[in-house]
Amino acid sequence: MTVPDLIFMDGSFRPSSSGHRAKLINPATEQPFAEVAAADVSDVNAAVESAQRAWEAGWRDLTPGRRTEILFNVAGKLREHVEEIAQLEMLHVGKPISDARDECALGARVFEYYAGAVTKFCGQTIPVARGGFDFTLRQPMGVVAAIVPWNFPFPIACWKVAPALAAGNCAVLKPASLSPLTALKLGELAHAAGLPPGVLQVLPGSGSAIGDALVTHPLIRKISFTGSTENGRRIMELASRDLKRISLELGGKSPNVVFADADWQRAAELSPMSVFANTGQDCCARSRVFVERSIYGPFVEKFVAATGKLVVGDPAKAETQLGPLVSAGQRARVEAFLADARKRGSRFACGAGRPHTKGYYLEPTVLLDVGKDDRCWREEIFGPVVCVTPFDEEAQVIREVNASPYGLSGSIWTNDLRRGLRVARQIESGVLSVNSHSSVHAEAPFGGFKQSGMGRDLGMAAMDGYTELKNVYVEE
Ligand code: NAP
Ligand code: MG
């Protein structure tokens, strides 16, 4: 397999200007397997300036029909290469291959959705009081920066880049240092599918080295960021200087609320993967499970049994459900949370061990009796750890769910439809599902309340976020 090891600018690969390189380590083997270029500030400036030129020279003014055609061609090219992209994704982040295939196919579907959206995203005519003719235009901004994390590198890159381009912008994509390969592949394949040079630039490189330069570059009109709350806060501060547009998709501590009137056996079977999928490195992970007290004991028993059956191991095997954590550092971070839980007297119903001698693996861990002030209850762990707690009343559980500063995702299990709707309305969260654990649909808005962020990815809402709204009035 060829691993792209350069930066992608103006439609071709080239070395970074500094010649800096970074080693990639396969988290399943702990072995270095490739070196990639690391962009520096002069690469950022060159990439943004040439994206601006590509915008002015044509992408901005392309007919909607032609833009649709190109984006459909990109989607088609991605579909042809799903297996290759999935293999790269597995290699650098340790993602189980079955999940990687699904996520890479989702990336292609996102391009299809936004290729179609180009000709369906429109303004309004408004009957203003004084008469005349009033209408709105949705106009592209210019060059946008897409900053992407390592947990779902390829789909998140697609769901930022595709709507940005569909709305008529050019994009500079910065993947996470741990996972640049599939972003570079996206640049290469999009260009091969007919995307003009400069419309999508891909800059692998460290966020601490080039993040500020990218965010503050005067030609960057919008920053779309997914990652930690800490970096989201910093980007918001930097963007405030020039009042840049931002969308932030940050952390979560999502609830999974199981009422006694639900098909709770099914909920107990399905819920482990709602927190342990992607080895818990998921901003939507349902890491706080609230169970109505009358079914708490049997629910926990079934939940722990289902957790014990999860297949943790080699991500290359089709049956693997949990691969390793992404890095030694991420595992150490999660284990520090577990040490805190131990110190505070939480009960470990299962997990917490290292199941393999090589690779950054960690067993899925179920914690009981976690104090509501403990770190494990309050903070995003971003690893395979869940806290399960009983509750007595609907009003109480809503209060406890909403006590978190986060509000990204969550699930409600009940067979009482009125209760499902009532509770869904009251939970402070951008995304919820009833009797399901799904959070992400290409067609529906995705994003958070409170400290989980602002703005929305996906659906037509993302197109709003990559455009400025202009009102035009014509006197009659
Ligand atoms: P992160 O540092 O916020 O990384 C996200 C992206 O931001 C990466 O591309 C990163 O680049 C970049 N970045 C880092 N510093 C930057 C800066 N000063 N300016 C602009 N961009 C910058 O997140 P992380 O360190 O990988 O993970 C830490 C924690 O964040 C996790 O444990 C989890 O709690 C949370 N997280 C949430 C999500 C989510 O989906 N909401 C995803 C990932 C992480 P580099 O990789 O080069 O640093
Ligand atoms: Mg970081």
Write structural notes for this entry.
This protein has 476 residues and is α/β, with parallel strands linked by helices. The protein is 39% helix and 20% strand. It has helices at residues 41-57, 64-80, 82-93, 97-117, 153-166, 181-192, 207-216, 229-241, 264-270, 272-276, 296-308, 328-343, 375-378, 394-402, 417-426, 459-465; strands at 7-9, 12-14, 21-26, 31-37, 125-126, 133-140, 143-147, 170-174, 200-202, 220-226, 245-249, 255-258, 288-292, 347-350, 365-368, 385-391, 406-407, 411-413, 433-434, 449-450, 453-454, 467-474. It has a seven-stranded mixed sheet with strand order 14-15-16-13-12-18-19, with helices on both faces. Helix 4 packs parallel to helix 5 (153-166) and helix 9 runs parallel beside helix 11 (296-308). The longest helix has 21 residues, at 97-117. It is globular and about 65 Å long. The model has no long low-confidence stretch (mean pLDDT 97). NADP nicotinamide-adenine-dinucleotide phosphate is lined by residues 147-151, 174, 176-177, 206-208, 211-212, 215, 226-228, 231, 234-235, 249-251, 283, 380, 382.
